[in-house]
Design a protein that fits this description.
By secondary structure, this protein is α/β, with parallel strands linked by helices. The protein has twelve helices and nine strands.
């Protein structure tokens, strides 16, 4: 009933903890685990041989290193159960009934969205996190009907897929249960990139997101407005910090500004102010947000 998809890239040090958390699930017999190896230099045979005694594991390997988005998409394309859950190879399900809670909560919905624990070096917090795949269960038939796929970019591809899914859905179930333990990885692709490079990848992924939104028959216009407003605020502050002024960035921001004009109008001024204040990070503005919008208007 449930396919759990795990991208692997040199994950030998952590994957056993992830699989242990799956082994503890009370509905283990209903779960198939897909390990998608993104051309790791490490070998997993001993780990797979051990856990295959207890867990239904399918091992898949990409022909070339392509990033986690391609690995997750390959997992979707080569699995078959009605419900899909993603977990990273250094994270865990935080209780024995995490997958059962998600499964029991998705009936009648396109997706169920739980809370997760974010674990840092010296602290942790429990949050709802709309940008990531963590602590969620997805309905395969919805993915297939909407023709949703991960993009091939190596950064923010999870954000783009999840936001696209939520923009396209009328039926999402938010539950207060905590099902996922996210171990903050300081060496991830997104966090090791420099500021300019990371912002370029972010804007590219968000451009992909809204080009795919435009292909959909149904769009939650209010949520689409929330997401594009967040994108424009994030880009505004980061452009001031990183002083990026390339032709590629300009072209993509022209497009995203068009999306802001189309969907941002559905977000109230009060909501926009609250969101803007959440992004404020003590940057001394070189120009106002409205000047920024004018810069990317054609």
């Amino acid at each position: 009933m449930i396919d759990v998809i795990i991208p692997l890239y040199n994950s030998k040090a952590t994957i056993s903890n992830t699989l242990d958390s799956i082994l503890k699930q009370v509905n283990l017999k209903d779960i198939i685990v897909y390990l998608v190896d993104d051309q790791s230099t490490e070998k997993y045979e001993d780990i797979i041989n051990y856990y295959s005694n207890y867990i239904n594991i399918r091992y898949l390997k990409l022909k070339k290193n392509s990033g986690p988005g391609v690995a997750r998409q390959y997992g979707i394309d080569n699995s078959h159960n009605e419900y899909i859950v993603f977990i990273d190879s250094d994270d865990e399900f935080c209780s024995q009934d995490s997958l059962l809670v998600l499964y029991n909560s998705i009936h009648g919905y396109d997706m169920v969205f739980s809370r997760m624990i974010q674990c840092f070096e010296n602290s942790e917090e429990t949050v709802f996190h709309e940008c990531c795949l963590h602590g969620k269960m997805y309905r395969r038939s919805f993915i297939e009907d909407k023709k949703l796929k991960f993009n091939k970019l190596r950064s923010h591809e999870d954000n783009a897929f999840n936001q696209l899914y939520m923009i396209c859905s009328k039926n999402i179930n938010y539950i207060s249960n905590v099902t996922y333990k996210y171990n903050f990885n300081y060496s991830s692709i997104t966090r090791t990139a420099n500021g300019k490079d990371s912002l370029k990848k972010y804007i590219s992924s968000m451009t992909w997101l809204y080009k795919n939104v435009e292909k959909q028959k149904y769009v939650d216009i209010f949520y689409a407005g929330i997401v594009i407003t967040e994108i424009m605020y994030y880009s505004y502050f980061n452009l001031m910090v990183n002083n990026i002024n390339t032709k590629i960035i300009k072209e993509k921001l022209y497009y995203l500004k068009k999306m802001y004009d189309k969907y941002g109008k559905y977000v109230s001024v009060k909501e926009k102010i609250n969101m803007f204040n959440g992004f404020y990070n003590q940057v001394i503005p070189q120009y106002t947000f409205y000047d920024f919008l004018k810069m990317y208007s054609k």
